[in-house]
Amino acid sequence: MKTILHKAVSRGHADHGWLNTHHTFSFANYHDPERMNFGVLRVLNDDEVSAGMGFGTHGHSNMEIISIPLEGDLEHKDSMGNTAVIKQGDIQVMSAGSGIQHSEKNKNQNQLVKFLQIWVIPNKVNVTPRYDQITLDKEDTLNNFHQIVSPNSDDDGVWIHQDAWFHLGDFDKGETAKYTLKNNNNGLYVFILEGSVKASDVSLERRDGLALWEVDKVDFTFDEKSKVLLMEVPLAN
């Protein structure tokens, strides 16, 4: 097993006034040649957007974009005609494909919206753009790694054009869990949203990330109430 630990304080950071953001991998003005990606996991941004503010209309192509709201309400509009609001417990996906324009805005005038913005390099290019969102059942993630992203449209969660699987879990103090990779050639990126966790005996705290590869399963123990995101991704596209 090989690992790379990314402590929360080592992430790139930018404060634009209306946007306070942390970058696990190189993004915008943050560039670290040692932190470009983990396999096809290209972007993991931890965003806070001020009340009433947001990302104006802009374009993407040939990228799978997953948004996971953590707090507040995020309003989405795109060039396919979709208008939606996503909030904590929702998962949003866009296949940018041949090209899409969209905006993401804090719908509320009196509180922050906090969300993860994740980009995955697809295994197919110039596909027809697509939008989808789901709402999770809180019971599904309780002391369990529940699948929220997969390559298959008939599986749990949203689907993307990549052999990647994401799982989300909310664990009580003292619980244990195990994750078995779907493909032993893949790697696993563990991101701690809240709490204190041991993953394969590596101690992780809030917003720490751990990349693991050349491994078929990972054991977890939860030293306090914790929320964890797992991203299993191919190491090469």
UniProtKB/TrEMBL annotation:
<feature type="binding site">
    <location>
        <position position="60"/>
    </location>
    <ligand>
        <name>Fe cation</name>
    </ligand>
</feature>
<dbReference type="InterPro" id="IPR041602">
    <property type="entry name" value="Quercetinase_C"/>
</dbReference>
<feature type="domain" description="Pirin N-terminal">
    <location>
        <begin position="13"/>
        <end position="120"/>
    </location>
</feature>
<dbReference type="Pfam" id="PF02678">
    <property type="entry name" value="Pirin"/>
</dbReference>
<dbReference type="InterPro" id="IPR011051">
    <property type="entry name" value="RmlC_Cupin_sf"/>
</dbReference>
<feature type="binding site">
    <location>
        <position position="102"/>
    </location>
    <ligand>
        <name>Fe cation</name>
    </ligand>
</feature>
<dbReference type="InterPro" id="IPR012093">
    <property type="entry name" value="Pirin"/>
</dbReference>
<comment type="similarity">
    <text>Belongs to the pirin family.</text>
</comment>
<dbReference type="InterPro" id="IPR003829">
    <property type="entry name" value="Pirin_N_dom"/>
</dbReference>
<dbReference type="GO" id="GO:0046872">
    <property type="term" value="F:metal ion binding"/>
</dbReference>
<dbReference type="Pfam" id="PF17954">
    <property type="entry name" value="Pirin_C_2"/>
</dbReference>
<keyword id="KW-0408">Iron</keyword>
<feature type="binding site">
    <location>
        <position position="104"/>
    </location>
    <ligand>
        <name>Fe cation</name>
    </ligand>
</feature>
<protein>
    <submittedName>
        <fullName>Pirin family protein</fullName>
    </submittedName>
</protein>
<feature type="binding site">
    <location>
        <position position="58"/>
    </location>
    <ligand>
        <name>Fe cation</name>
    </ligand>
</feature>
<feature type="domain" description="Quercetin 2,3-dioxygenase C-terminal cupin">
    <location>
        <begin position="147"/>
        <end position="233"/>
    </location>
</feature>
<dbReference type="InterPro" id="IPR014710">
    <property type="entry name" value="RmlC-like_jellyroll"/>
</dbReference>
<keyword id="KW-0479">Metal-binding</keyword>
